Amino acid sequence: MTVKPVKVRNLTIGEGIPKICVPLVGESKEQILEEAQALSGTSADFVEWRADCFAGVSDMEQVKEVLKMLRTELNDLPLLFTFRTASEGGKSRLEPEAHTALLEEVVQAGCADLVDIELMFGKDRVKKLVAAAHNAGLKVIISNHILKDMPSKSGLIQKMFEMQELNADILKIAVLPQMRKDVITLLAAVEEMNTKYASRPIIGIAMAEMGSVSRLCGEAFGSAVTFGVVKNASAPGQIEADALSVVLHTVHKTLIKEK
Question: Which end of the chain is more exposed for a tag (fewer CB within 10 A), N or C?
């Protein structure tokens, strides 16, 4: 099966060197703006606003204000909106109904280009949110962040199958490895899904310091995006974006030579 790249503004995800996404994790509007301004001249390909870190996330008017500010500040850099739930490593909690309402409002606001929807929401809720996002012209990342009870390779592939069946534009699977072989399991699952079954790009990440290598070598296994730091990290093991870019380009040149 051939993976079809995803076009977001002037960025194509799923071909060539993995794209670098930089998170914004400020608690206040001022901190978020400072983080966004720091992106100028860096290796960021697109930006993730981790709204679960924002103190005003329960107030939709404040959320819309930040979205408008970011859309202006980022110019043509694509913007991914994410509210990461606490069970998957997020910084704050919303009741399911409030979380759903937040995402529905965000996709209608006309500022974000992509939205993250967690697989754990369940099929009916995910389908509803995916449809709303697509109807508003946004691309969808369906994600699953596994912080304990590391699945088998087949278990990880099954989760990615579910994301694909739910019409995600990009599949994201992240694990918190407890041992080195968990990193190998994650990379093997991404490679098999990418080469045999995927029709869309995959993001595969092993978190924490033990998993840092997965952020560097993703292209060799079929991962289309990695996350890098400019000011503040959103997850353990993230690497400074410009240093990350140097490694990604080096790996890419090596892979091209092998072909």
Answer: C
Report CA dihedral (162, 168, 169, 175) to the nearest 10 degrees: -60
Q: Name the pTM for this structure.
A: 0.95
pLDDT at position 181, please?
97
What are phi and psi for residue 206, nearest 5 degrees? -105, 125
Burial class (CB in 10 A: 0-12, 13-18, 19+), 259: exposed
Catalytic residue among 139, 145, 159, 231: 145
Q: What is the mean pLDDT of the chain?
A: 94
Q: pLDDT of 168-191, one tens digit each?
A: 999 999 999 999 999 999 999 999
Is the confidence at residue 237, as pLDDT, over 80?
Answer: no
Q: Is 172 a catalytic residue?
A: yes
Pairing of strands 170-175, 139-146: parallel
Residues in contact with 155: Cβ distance below 8 Å, sequence separation at least 6, in sequence order: none
